[in-house]
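Hello forum,

I keep getting stuck at the same step: I have a sequence, I want structure tokens, and every attempt I make locally crashes halfway through. Rather than fight my setup again tonight, could one of you with a working pipeline run this one for me? It's a single chain of 368 residues.
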Amino acid sequence: MKRFGTILSNGIKDFHPVYFAMVMATGIVSIAFDAMAFPHIAKILFLLNLVFYSILCVIVAARMMFFRSNVMADLKVLPQAWLFLTFVVGTNTIGAQLVIFQHATGLASLLWLIALISWIICIYFILSNLILMRKRTVREMVNGATLLIIVSTVSVAMLGLRLLDATAIHDTYAYFAAWTFWASGFALYLFIVPLIIYRLFFKTLEPGDWEAPYWICMGAPAIITLTGSEFVMHMPAVAVWDDIREITLRITIFAWIIGTSWIPYQLFMDIRQLITVNVAGPAPLWIKTFPWSRLAFGRQYYFYGPSSWSRVFPIGMYTACTLSLAKATGSGSLGIIPQYWGWFALLIWSLTLIGTVRSVIALRFSSR
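Reply #2:
Ran it on my machine without issues. Output:
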């Protein structure tokens, strides 16, 4: 029991908000299945996400209370600081679920405010870290997790827009503020993604160097597409917004095309990694049949890590954004894609959850 207490204490001490990627992933898959007209699956995922978010928030609060120096130390290291943004996105995603499933706009507004303040704090530390680093070092440290700065920025607009629509507030300045967050996220993507493209396509990338967070290269334009589509459908119906609506629609379609173009490469890199890394000789048939099975099964071939959730959020977000874009453009054929891709998202979510439960059980038994 004493050993378990030590492990629990160390777990809180070393805990990092990257685990909020599980909340991000579960939330967006839930929202996607609600849009796919599977309300029972969507609500089950919503209830699970409330449990996940509550547990993780308790752990974060305990870490802030008892290990504040460790939190500050993480915020002062750039690769760690990026990951704190998962709390911002996770909080906004839970807020969006509360609006959709419970119409709890009061609680969702509180979560939006918490997310906004957290986003400001994270941006402050990220900018401080960037100022203190050399240009070459920053370029080398840019990776998939860096794009969380775009996802978090757009997530503030995403929940803000849902709250404005749910509360029937048609204040022009509020809509413009939310739109500015969305447009800033798109501009940041155009600035950051060339650095990642250089790293992925113009430098040697071994299968072991591929990481699940690189899926955010698709996830970032996907959340831009989702939020942009919502703006197109819910902008104030006044003449001054007509040009902005047209620009927003064009950017949204462009973002969806960018996100879609990433998918074949990311699937290929995932498969390449999962059938070769830590596999001596030819991969077993069950791995070749569905490589992502390694996220949940096998002893020698088990391949789960907390960052695995970074793969699920973009896959789920692509489902949700495509459905929203189909609605915004009136394109029925576009809505066919997510009817299949959504089930793939749910399968990857399930395998990743099994991997998470398995790792927790393994930790529990290791304490005996």
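The chain has a mean pLDDT of 91. If your local run keeps crashing, start a new thread with the error log.
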